[in-house]
Each structure stands twice: as structure tokens, then as C-alpha cells.
Amino acid sequence: MFVALRLVAGLALLGINQAAGSTIFPTGVVYSNWTDESEEAKVCEIVLDVSNPPSREVVKFIALAGYNKFDGTVLAGFLMAAADITTADKYQIARISGAAFSSRTFNSLGHLDYEIYDDGTVMATTQDPLLAITFINAVIFGTYELRFARPDSNAEMRTYKIASAPGEPVTSNFMHCMDHLAVESHRTQSDASTKGSPLPEGGGSGLSIATDQGG
Fold first, then answer.
1. Other Cβ atoms closer than 10 A to 85
2. Which residues contact 68 (CB under 8 A, 6 or more apart)?
3. pTM summary value
4. Is the distance from CB of 164 to CB of 30 less than 8 angstroms?
5. CA pair distance 58, 72, nearest whole angstrom
6. pLDDT tens for each residue of 116-151
7. Torsion of CA 212, 176, 32, 104, to 10 degrees
8. Nearest-angstrom CA–CA distance, 136 and 65
9. SS3 state of residue 51
């Protein structure tokens, strides 16, 4: 038994990835903000970088909310990617499957629409305002799981348990961005409606409702 424990410890010191199908409590959980804007859209983001040294695996999770500047339609959801550190400041993105966000109040599976990009990154979004608000609240509350499988690990599920919430500056910046997004989206929808665009009655993005702290 002691030999086995020493072997496991030795593999960890060498930076070998955690075993497939494992539950991981990461020691590196760093939140930040980003706002992406183009001629077509504006997106507010909470960016989470996850690591668990000495493992070489890192995970990036981006919770996002954005709107289309042409018709005001809003969507919210996330991007998720996993990568391995190859050398200093260099990463190799890994293909993942079964990506999911899960908290006490929200599960992305069955509620968000998924898209997988060629580089292995997974995107899941919704245009339903109620689902969007529930998801964003769950991220801000900060107790949730990120799950995915890697084909190079026999496709067994890996679960990262996130137990810390974004700091007040990150949350405030995101909500400030969201407030502007909601106003701009409503204005765009109103302008489109005036021009005879077949948009639903009522207008508004539905995302201007203040989030609470219920994860």
C-alpha cells in the first residue's frame, strides 16, 4: 500500500494529469471580466480560469450574455475549453465532450443549445430570458460544477467542483455591462419594431432584472 501511495505521489510530482473520471477540487480559481464588442454584437463576460497544479490540465469557462445589434435579440450561456500546458506559456487545446454546467438551481443539459467548434471548444447558449437569468445567478453565486470528458482519457467524465464566487469587482463590472446591454437591446428592438420588424410584443431583453444570490 505504501508503495502504491509513493507511486501516486511521484506521478503527481511529475505533473501527470488526474485520472479519468475523477472529481477535482481545483486550487487555482481566478475570475476576471471581459467585454467584447463588434459592429454585429456586444457581449459581457465573466471569465474563469481553473488550474490544479501539479496537473498540466487547465480549464477556461466563460459565462456570457450578449445581444445582436441588428435586431436586439439576446442570448446567454457559456464557452468551455480544456487544455494541457506543454511548455511555459504554451497550451494544447484538448477536444472535450459532454460539457456541462451544474448547480443547485441550474443544469445546462437539456436547457441550453450546444455547438462544438473545430478546436474542441464547446459553446452552450439560450435565448430564453428566464433560463438566462437562472444561469447567470448560478455563476454569480459561485457553487457549481464543470463537467466534461476527454477522448484521450477513455471519455470518462471529469468534474471540477467550483466553491468560490466571483469577487465583488468582477460581479459589479459584469452587472454594469449587463445594464447597458439591456438598454441597448431594448432600444434596438424598439427601432426594429418601428420599422415593421416581426418581433415579439413587449420588447426588452428580459436580462435587465437584477440578479439575486440564489445559486
1. 16
2. 40, 41, 74, 188
3. 0.78
4. no
5. 35
6. 998 889 999 999 999 999 999 999 999 999 999 988
7. 20
8. 9
9. strand
Q: Which three cell numbers stand for residue 108?
A: 445546462
Place of cell 466571483: 166
**Cα(17)–Cα(59) distance, integer angstroms:** 13
Cα gap 184→151, rounded to integer Å: 42
- DSSP string of 179-213, one letter each residue: HHHHHHHHHHHHHHHHTT--PPTT-S-S--SPP-S
Q: Per the structure block, which three cell numbers stand in for 203?
A: 420588447
Instruction: Yes or no: say if 76 and 132 are a contact pair by the CB < 8 Å rule.
Output: yes
Average pLDDT in the chain = 81
Instruction: Report in angstroms the alpha-carbon separations of 162 from 21, 52, 122, 143, 166.
Output: 17, 12, 19, 6, 11
Asked if omega into 129 is within 30° of 0 (cis), the reply is no
* Distance in angstroms (rounded) separating the CA atoms of residues 182 and 129: 11
Q: Which residues pair with 28 in a beta bridge?
A: 51
For residue 5, the surrounding DSSP H or E stretch is helix 2-13
Q: Residues 76-109: pLDDT tens digits?
A: 999 999 999 988 778 899 999 999 999 999 999 9
Provide the phi-psi class of 28: left if phi over 0, else alpha when psi is between -120 and 50, else beta: beta
Q: What is the DSSP letter of 95?
A: P
As a whole number of angstroms, the longest Cα–Cα distance in the chain is 75
- Identity of the amino acid at 159: T
Residue recorded with cell 481566478: 30
Which of 172, 76, 180, 165 lies closest to 124 in space, CA to CA?
76
